[in-house]
Design a protein that fits this description.
Blueprint lengths: L5 E5 L6 H11 L6 E6 L4 H12 L2 E8 L2 E7 L3
Parallel strand pairs: 1-2
Antiparallel strand pairs: 2-4, 3-4
């Protein structure tokens, strides 16, 4: 299990706000640090996969509890 350095709660926010929030939050992390994001936007899984591919950050984990997705992302650059 990765150590989580930061957490953001995007529950109730819809595209593109979860991506905007994680993009801003990742800027404050050091390379190698991990951020957890919670979101309940049904499109957030596809959005996060696309964002990770575009930015090169590592999407470590996607899990879902009810309507809430949990994403773990490691900053890579």
């Amino acid at each position: 299990m990765a150590y989580i350095h930061a957490k953001i709660d995007c529950i109730g926010l819809f595209c593109p706000m979860p991506i905007v929030k994680i993009r801003e939050a990742v800027k404050g992390l050091a390379v190698g640090e991990v951020i957890e994001m919670l979101a309940d936007d049904p499109s957030s899984e596809a959005d996060m996969k696309s964002w990770a591919r575009r930015t090169g950050h590592e999407l470590l984990e996607i899990s879902k509890d009810g309507a809430v997705y949990r994403f773990l992302v490691r900053k890579t650059r």
